[in-house]
Backbone:
């Protein structure tokens, strides 16, 4: 009943440092704001430390309105990690591309806060608030380069479409509330288990799928993502692609496996079909793309499809697969986008054609791009392969066709990844001037690459972690 | 045996690659020497292992770290590096070809540093598949090789009938999609085994001890067959092979035709047949038919070629047909023949491609009608070429005859008239090989080639090493066969046992 | 029994309002009009929530609280939306959503 | 007896809400549709009152019919320099949009018709505000705080965007 | 020495092989050294062979149980191959003959190939060739034999194509290899059958197992089939009828090679193989008849071609084919000894004639047309007279070697006929007529080339001693070589025979007949080509029967037939299949990828960039899902019913 602050530590800490950076941003004169990023970084690392320290500190507070279990912890760590990487990797980009960025870092932190809240939300209201905080902040971030028409347009699109989808999600929630008579996810589970089963519940489910499908950009609710990804500032894009997707997946899993697991026969088929559609359309449409951000956007649609496979298997193994994949997806995606940011920072272009000869201009960036893309494609010995293995292993017996489709599609995806690699490795650069990454970016790149390779070769620890988390999820 | 020799063998090319990374790219000679050192070490180690292997004992030996090292617990994956009579010839072959491939690309100066790095990674990857006794590790290495190959093709490849970009992409995607089927099978088998035994374990032995239901075995074997078959360029999944080899640079052609393909055959025996005997039993006749079609079809295809690399490309498809036929017999003699034939063809194809590579380097063409009379200017080159040619038409006294003969013995016993068709392949083979050889090397000396240099210095290494293996293996087949037999016999014993169990 | 009206009436009403809003979102050219339509959808949700609250959990005020939160957030959203509309209008001199297709395909 | 009144009230209110809402999405003149939007909101507030949620109704009237609409009007004044008459046309999509939403309505209606309700017999306490405040401030602390953060972020974000554009405008 | 030789018979092939290795890897730059190494090796293996022959022919028990020793070569469960040595009179004789001829030819080559840039290479090839032939001779195992057999083929390929700058040589070499390859295919099948059914390829074991083949569940018909399959190999190697085409073209090689191939080694390999596997053939009369008939037919057929050829070596080549036909005939009628006897004599006189022809060409700078020669005997007496001796021998004039062997063959054929094989008489007639033709075309050549008027444009000169010495040696053997097999004292028959030794009373009638035939042939040739210096009659004959002449001159157009088959059928088929591969198999793949790409493009254009399109799609998706889930999905039936 009472608030248990020890459980809230991470959120509070994040709130604190967020506020700190915010205030500092307001007070410090604009010419001496360089240090802001480092402060934000320190803060985030601190919060991450706090979160990790609370790994085994589980509990439920406010009679189930706020759930802090390892499952939530895992996703919080994920979001914080990606926030750290994004911030660290985009110092230079932010300095040069984002005018008066004093709010940039604080907004990123508040976004993360929203994610953390929605991840461990135990009732619809908290869930909604966290989601909305995340969304609103992302709208701001997407429109952050407000001197750029594209950025503004991205903000506009995200705002309107997200608002719409949130309305749909809310409608679904209201129907669920109506049919089950509670807004506590835990109670919803017990009510549904008790046999509450009304036609409107189905409509509610469908609307939930739509609303959350929008956030994880699953076909056919994905259409915003390429445009927004392209228009938003690149670090924001990577954050959007990784963290918001992961958080939404956390909610997705919590709602559907946690609450509606008993009536899975109503929605598993639906999710399977959506997953298949996402894989197919995401991968096929990525093929003809010429802008690397759009290409990555479509590929992230496909990735969402893969992750949904873990949802299809309503099981601990499935949840574990989702978590594992979401985590390795962080490194691959952020690695790729950081390279994109660094390149566009120098060349001012996101066209694939302008990556010619990157291997000679910036060997590190080129190899990170290679590793990241191949990991997304699931080529061993990179992390993506293990992740896919975990995911597909869970559905191979009930939905063999899905496994087939997924693997074939991931091999087809290699096609467009290789087109990038072709340009990077074969062509001679138009201007051979080396691309200066800057120390922070370089370190970030190295971290992502090492992580991607390491998770592929020795996934043991992470999978253990995901195991514990998944078990904690199913205990209740 | 507390030194992990195999792991060291695996690491030595990788270490060399690391060293090269820190060499300035101007020092390309140095890069090449380092690469040669790395592969050479691997070769020596594998020779040491090969002759240190106790055939009388048989089974898995040289087990690293004294046994499986748990790697990914919840998938039952373990770092399990060991060799038996089946994998040893392949390991040796890999390092033979890897070592010579470095010298075959000796004259390449364009971005030589990168080339060597990719080459070494490639070699290490191929090696890993042969020494890994764990399915998962096997898979890791199985696909790691694809990407370096792609990069090498697009950078150092050559465009003829098809552009090198097309060739590389086709090669990669084709094999990857094949491997997708394979992966589905692997995942399904793993899950099924987990359900039956309750403990996850991915080592080949453990899987082979699981009694899978027959229907399941049949379906899964089909998947694995498509996967491995497309890598083995089994008809009709072969069409990547000629284009790919034509587009690829010499080193890649050597390694790809020499060993990479063999991973398909190796996997087919080591994994598909070994783990799913009933499935193998069911599919064997179809495999045989496909193999025979491959033999005749590809041989005829090679007959119609004017580009040397296409000739060899098709011929390799045709030879793999023999391998399939041998595997399909599911008999000791036949499978022995198949494995030995993989070794033989590996050496032969590598020599062939390296020689063609030199010809291309020196004359800047592979178009047979434009060639001729090379032997007057480059006798050593011609000797190498003719040796490869003779080996590929199965001339006795060279390594490839006895394997083919053993395959014929068993397959003729098992499949009768079908085998006769395959045997007829030797005539067509002789026809196209002789044609290509004669029209390239002999005939009146041509003016335009009068100042080409014969191969010399490091360029001779492929000829000496591979040619030597060709002859030695031909004169003393027991060196190869006793080893292969010590590996194949137990596997087939296990299979027959399983078949009897499945039969009741 | 407080009233003869059963939830269906209100759910029907909210559904209608919701879909009218949806219609607006899809088919109004003006960005501000789309914002308005979203507000319509949200208030439809509110009707739902409050009705549910009355009919199912009269004693716990979940629905009403939820509605209040939604209203709050909606206000903020509108504010932000208008800001973006203004900004983009300064940039592109248009509020017609169909003009904003720099990024496509 | 009072059932009848309630029914009539409901019919009137819902007619008002839906009618005005339809006008909102169909009218050509943006300002008019905003005015009708106010009407809609007030109607909704009425519905809330019917559902004895007076506090929510109040908030609805204040925030929506008040603040939001004013904001919108200001917004319109900022962006609509040219003719206000035809500021709010439909685009081509309504031909498809109409059947879609119609279809959805039919679906929901059908499903709703097939579902029966276990209506709780308890009545809503009269003093909603007194009941609401502890819940809001105690049970829902976390959402409440989050809402605070959200408002801050939204506000500063909005400021940022607009200010940026002004600076931009000066530059140009 | 003898003991050593018998115990180390494998040295005989090994020495030349070593010479080959030495020359290739070390001494290639120094021609003289290379040739001396080769000759030394060859000579020493000749000595060994001679002592082996001595050892064998001095203790008779070798006849019944040959000396066999072998070691495991490789093997696995169910298929083990031992390689080893099998010494019996036949192989001893072959060893002796082959090594002798080879030695002589190498000596000869030192003169003939003088100054050739590839001098050492040539000798290395010769050594390898001899090595593989000797290996074939002593092989104790059919697989081992087959291997050597193939190696012989390889060497012949290399040697025929020795003048690599000559297109014709290149083609001839290819043709030789391919044709024999076709034969080998059949033989390989035969061997596989034997291996699978009898479980071994060892000659001795096979000899024990084949006779009671019923135990191995084998019908006579199948055994016959197997025998014929095996016989296809010899058909190819020994240039029997359908596959003889390569042999005349093989003249493209240097003359010593022709001598080596045609006289001593390669071509007789086929005969020797059949001789080695007599135990198989004697079981199946049907196969025997096939062998006999093909032999006889080939003999006649080749002879009819030979009478109109113009190039000296070509004529000799066809005569070889014809003589091989004789040997096959002898085998076919079941007399190993007769056939081996002819092989023995033929080796000497044919080698002699080839080498002589070689020295003629040497003198005339490779002018090969006999019509352009004439009166050479005055300028180059040794060559001329040795050639004449060869001619007498092949024509079958007593007491020259050829007479005895050919007479023996005629005798056994007649015997065969009398033992109630109706076919026998036909065979005999063919053989007899062939004898006449042989005498005719041989002497036609001799008269044209060596007698008659000299041609002024030729400036012939006698060849150096290195070339004439072998001629003289061979001439001696060609003269007296047959005396060991005379019907009165048939030592040959005692030693070399299959089953019971063939001992019949000398048939004087037959001898008379063959002598008469031979003389008739020579006489005809004399009248046509020597007596009338203008050769009017010959011309008239040719014009009188133009078709006959053309057919014979163009070798029955068989080459053209094969040409056609090769180009139209084989290459055509290849082209068709390749087209199929590109335009069907490969195109399918490409179309699939094309399709994928197009689908991607198609979907791409849904992404209009217009925000509200996305909203529309969103709600469309919502509608579809709702409809499907709520009304389509069977699992939602419970829902439709309301509360469960």
Residues:
């Amino acid at each position: 009943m009472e608030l248990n602050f020890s459980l809230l530590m991470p959120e509070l800490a994040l709130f604190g440092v967020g506020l700190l950076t915010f205030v500092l941003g307001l007070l410090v004169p604009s010419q001496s704001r360089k240090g802001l990023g480092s402060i934000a970084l320190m803060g985030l690392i601190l919060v991450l430390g706090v979160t990790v320290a609370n790994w085994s500190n589980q509990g439920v507070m406010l009679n189930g309105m706020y759930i802090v279990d390892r499952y939530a912890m895992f996703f919080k760590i994920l979001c914080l990690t990606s926030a750290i990487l994004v911030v660290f990797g985009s110092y230079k980009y932010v300095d040069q591309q984002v005018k008066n960025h004093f709010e940039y870092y604080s907004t990123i932190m508040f976004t993360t806060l929203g994610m953390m809240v929605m991840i461990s939300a135990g009732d619809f209201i908290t869930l909604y608030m966290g989601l909305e905080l995340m969304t609103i902040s992302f709208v701001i971030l997407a429109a952050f380069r407000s001197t750029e028409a594209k950025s503004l347009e991205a903000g506009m699109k995200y705002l309107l479409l997200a608002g719409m989808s949130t309305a749909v999600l809310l409608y679904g929630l209201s129907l669920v509330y109506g049919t089950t008579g509670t807004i506590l996810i835990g109670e919803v589970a017990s009510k549904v288990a008790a046999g509450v089963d009304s036609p409107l519940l189905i409509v509610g489910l469908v609307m939930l799928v739509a609303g959350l499908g929008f956030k994880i950009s699953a076909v056919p609710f994905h259409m915003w993502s390429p445009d927004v990804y392209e228009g938003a500032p690149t670090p924001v894009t990577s954050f959007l692609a990784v963290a918001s997707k992961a958080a939404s997946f956390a909610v997705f899993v919590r709602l559907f496996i946690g609450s509606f697991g008993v009536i899975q026969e109503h929605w598993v088929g639906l999710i399977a079909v959506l997953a298949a559609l996402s894989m197919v359309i995401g991968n096929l449409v990525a093929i003809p793309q010429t802008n690397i951000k759009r290409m990555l956007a479509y590929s992230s649609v496909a990735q969402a499809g893969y992750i949904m496979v873990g949802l299809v298997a309503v099981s601990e193994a499935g949840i574990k697969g989702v978590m594992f994949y979401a985590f390795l997806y962080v490194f691959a995606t952020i690695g790729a986008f950081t390279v994109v940011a660094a390149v566009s920072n120098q060349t001012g272009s996101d066209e694939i054609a302008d990556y010619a000869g990157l291997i000679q201009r910036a060997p590190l960036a080129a190899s990170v791009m290679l590793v990241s893309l191949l990991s997304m494609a699931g080529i061993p010995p990179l992390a993506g392969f293990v992740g896919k293995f975990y995911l597909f292993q869970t559905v191979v017996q009930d939905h063999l066709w899905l496994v087939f489709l997924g693997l074939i599609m991931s091999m087809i995806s290699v096609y467009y990844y290789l087109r990038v690699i072709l340009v990077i490795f074969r062509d001679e650069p138009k201007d051979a001037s080396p691309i200066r990454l800057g120390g922070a970016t370089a370190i970030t790149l190295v971290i992502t690459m090492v992580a991607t390779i390491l998770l592929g070769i020795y996934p043991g620890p992470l999978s253990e972690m995901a195991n514990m988390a998944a078990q904690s999820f199913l205990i209740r | 045996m507390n030194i992990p020799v195999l792991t060291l063998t695996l690491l030595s090319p990788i270490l060399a690659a690391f060293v090269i990374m820190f060499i300035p790219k101007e020092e390309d000679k140095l890069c090449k020497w380092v690469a040669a050192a790395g592969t050479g070490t691997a070769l020596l180690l594998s020779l040491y292992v090969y002759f240190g292997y106790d055939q009388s004992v048989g089974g898995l030996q040289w087990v690293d770290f004294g046994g499986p090292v748990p790697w990914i617990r919840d998938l039952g994956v373990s770092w399990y590096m060991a060799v038996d009579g089946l994998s040893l010839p392949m390991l040796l072959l890999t390092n033979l070809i890897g070592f010579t491939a470095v010298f075959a690309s000796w004259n390449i100066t364009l971005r030589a540093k990168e080339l060597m790095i990719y080459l070494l990674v490639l070699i290490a990857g191929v090696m890993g598949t042969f020494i890994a006794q764990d399915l998962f590790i096997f898979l890791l290495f199985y696909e790691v090789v694809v990407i370096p190959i792609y990069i090498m093709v697009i950078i150092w490849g050559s465009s003829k009938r098809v552009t090198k970009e097309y060739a590389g992409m086709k090669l990669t995607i084709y094999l990857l999609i094949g491997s997708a089927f394979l992966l589905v099978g692997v995942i399904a088998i793993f899950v099924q085994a987990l359900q039956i035994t309750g403990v996850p374990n991915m080592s080949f032995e453990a899987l082979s001890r699981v009694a899978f239901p027959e229907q399941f075995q049949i379906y899964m074997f089909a998947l694995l067959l498509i996967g491995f078959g497309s890598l083995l360029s089994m008809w009709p999944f072969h069409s990547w092979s000629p284009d790919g080899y034509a587009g690829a640079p010499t080193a890649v052609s050597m390694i790809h035709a020499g060993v990479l393909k063999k991973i398909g055959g190796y996997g087919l025996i080591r994994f598909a047949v070994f783990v799913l005997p009933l499935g193998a039993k069911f599919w064997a006749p179809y495999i045989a038919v496909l193999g025979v079609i491959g033999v005749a079809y590809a041989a005829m295809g090679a007959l119609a070629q004017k580009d040397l690399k296409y000739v060899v490309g098709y011929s390799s498809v045709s030879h793999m047909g023999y391998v399939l036929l041998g595997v399909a017999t599911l008999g000791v003699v036949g499978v022995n023949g198949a494995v030995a034939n993989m070794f033989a063809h590996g050496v032969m194809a590598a020599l062939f491609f390296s020689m063609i590579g030199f010809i291309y380097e020196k004359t800047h063409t592979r178009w047979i009608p434009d060639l001729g009379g090379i032997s007057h200017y480059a006798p050593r080159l011609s000797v190498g070429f003719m040796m490869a040619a003779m080996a590929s038409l199965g001339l006795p006294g060279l390594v490839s005859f006895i394997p083919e003969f053993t395959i014929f013995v068993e397959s003729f016993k098992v499949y009768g008239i079908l085998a006769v068709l395959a045997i007829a392949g030797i005539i067509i083979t002789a026809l196209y090989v002789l044609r290509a050889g004669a029209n390239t090397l002999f005939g009146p000396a041509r003016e335009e080639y009068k100042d080409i240099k014969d191969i010399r210095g490091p360029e001779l290494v492929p000829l000496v090493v591979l040619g030597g293996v060709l002859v030695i293996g031909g004169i003393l087949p027991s060196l190869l066969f006793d080893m292969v037999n010590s590996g194949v016999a137990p596997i087939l014993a296990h299979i027959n046992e399983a078949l009897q169990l499945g039969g009741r | 029994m407080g009233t003869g009206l059963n939830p269906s009436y209100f759910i029907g009403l909210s559904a209608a309002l919701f879909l009218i809003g949806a219609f607006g979102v899809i088919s109004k050219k003006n960005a501000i009009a789309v914002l308005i339509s979203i507000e319509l959808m949200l208030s439809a949700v509110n009707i739902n929530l409050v009705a549910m609250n009355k009919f199912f959990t009269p004693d716990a005020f979940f629905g009403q609280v939820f509605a209040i939160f939604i209203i709050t957030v909606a206000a903020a959203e509108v504010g932000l939306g208008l800001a973006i509309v203004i900004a983009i209008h300064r940039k592109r001199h248009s509020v017609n959503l169909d003009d904003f297709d720099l990024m496509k395909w | 007896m009072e059932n009848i009144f309630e029914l009539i009230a409901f019919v009137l209110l819902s007619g008002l809400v839906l009618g005005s809402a339809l006008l909102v999405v169909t009218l050509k003149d943006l300002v008019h549709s905003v005015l009708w939007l106010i009407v809609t909101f007030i109607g909704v507030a009425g519905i809330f009152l019917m559902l004895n949620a007076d506090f929510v109704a109040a908030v609805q009237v204040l925030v929506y019919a008040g603040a939001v609409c004013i904001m919108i009007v200001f917004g319109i004044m900022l962006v609509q320099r040219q003719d206000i008459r035809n500021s709010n046309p439909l685009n081509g999509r309504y031909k498809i949009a109409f059947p879609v939403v119609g279809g959805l309505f039919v679906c929901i209606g059908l499903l709703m018709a097939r579902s029966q309700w276990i209506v709780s017999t308890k009545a809503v306490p009269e003093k909603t505000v007194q009941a609401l405040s502890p819940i809001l401030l105690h049970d829902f602390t976390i959402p409440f705080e989050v809402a605070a953060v959200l408002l801050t972020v939204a506000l500063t974000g909005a400021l940022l965007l607009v200010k940026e554009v002004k600076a931009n405008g000066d530059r140009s | 020495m003898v003991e050593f030789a018998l115990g180390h018979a494998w040295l005989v092939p090994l020495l030349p092989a070593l010479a080959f290795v030495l020359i290739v890897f070390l001494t290639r730059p120094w021609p003289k050294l290379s040739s001396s190494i080769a000759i030394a090796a060859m000579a020493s293996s000749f000595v060994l062979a001679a002592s082996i022959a001595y050892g064998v022919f001095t203790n008779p028990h070798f006849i019944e149980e040959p000396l066999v020793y072998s070691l495991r070569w490789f093997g696995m469960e169910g298929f083990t191959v031992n390689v080893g040595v099998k010494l019996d009179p036949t192989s001893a004789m072959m060893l002796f003959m082959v090594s002798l001829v080879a030695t002589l030819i190498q000596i000869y080559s030192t003169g003939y190939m003088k100054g050739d840039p590839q001098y050492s290479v040539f000798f290395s090839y010769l050594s390898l060739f001899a090595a593989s032939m000797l290996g074939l001779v002593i092989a104790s195992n059919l697989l081992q034999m087959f291997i050597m057999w193939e190696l012989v083929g390889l060497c012949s390929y290399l040697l025929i194509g020795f003048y690599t700058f000559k297109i014709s040589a290149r083609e001839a070499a290819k043709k030789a290899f391919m044709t024999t390859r076709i034969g080998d295919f059949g033989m390989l099948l035969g061997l596989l059958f034997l291996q699978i059914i009898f479980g071994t390829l060892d000659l001795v074991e096979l000899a024990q197992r084949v006779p009671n083949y019923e135990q191995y569940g084998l019908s006579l018909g199948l055994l016959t089939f197997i025998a014929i399959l095996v016989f296809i190999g010899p058909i190819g190697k020994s240039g029997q009828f359908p596959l003889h085409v390569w042999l005349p073209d093989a003249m493209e090689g240097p003359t010593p090679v022709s001598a080596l191939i045609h006289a001593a080694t390669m071509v007789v390999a086929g005969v020797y193989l059949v001789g080695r596997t007599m135990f198989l053939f004697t079981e199946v009369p049907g196969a025997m008849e096939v062998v006999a008939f093909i032999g006889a037919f080939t003999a006649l057929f080749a002879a009819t071609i030979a009478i109109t050829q113009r190039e000296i070596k070509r004529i000799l080549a066809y005569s070889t084919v014809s003589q091989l036909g004789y040997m096959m005939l002898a085998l076919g009628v079941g007399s190993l000894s007769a056939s081996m006897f002819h092989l023995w004599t033929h080796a000497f006189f044919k080698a002699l004639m080839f080498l002589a022809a070689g020295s003629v060409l040497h003198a005339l700078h490779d002018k090969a047309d006999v019509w352009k020669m004439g009166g050479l005997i005055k300028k180059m007496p040794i060559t001329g007279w040795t050639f004449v001796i060869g001619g007498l021998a092949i024509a079958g004039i007593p007491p020259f070697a050829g007479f005895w062997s050919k007479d023996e063959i005629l005798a056994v054929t007649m015997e065969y006929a009398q033992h109630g094989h109706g076919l026998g008489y036909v065979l005999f007639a063919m053989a007899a007529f062939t004898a006449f033709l042989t005498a005719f075309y041989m002497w036609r050549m001799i008269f044209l080339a060596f007698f008659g008027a000299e041609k002024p444009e030729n400036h012939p000169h006698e060849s150096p001693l290195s070339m004439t010495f072998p001629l003289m040696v061979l001439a001696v053997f060609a003269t007296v070589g047959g005396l060991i097999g005379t019907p009165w004292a048939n030592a040959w028959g005692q030693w070399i025979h299959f089953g019971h030794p063939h001992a019949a009373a000398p048939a004087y009638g037959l001898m008379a007949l063959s002598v008469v035939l031979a003389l008739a042939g020579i006489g005809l040739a004399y009248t046509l080509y020597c007596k009338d210096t203008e050769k009017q009659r010959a011309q008239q004959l040719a014009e009188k029967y133009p078709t006959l002449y053309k057919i014979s001159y163009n070798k029955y157009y068989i080459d053209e037939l094969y040409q056609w088959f090769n180009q139209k059928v084989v290459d055509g088929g290849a082209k068709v299949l390749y087209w199929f591969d590109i335009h069907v198999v490969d195109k399918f793949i490409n179309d699939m990828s094309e399709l994928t790409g197009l689908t991607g493009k198609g979907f791409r254009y849904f992404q209009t960039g217009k925000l509200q399109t996305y909203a529309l799609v969103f709600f469309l998706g919502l509608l579809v899902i709702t409809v499907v889930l709520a009304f389509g999905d069977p699992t939602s039936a419970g829902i439709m019913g309301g509360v469960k």
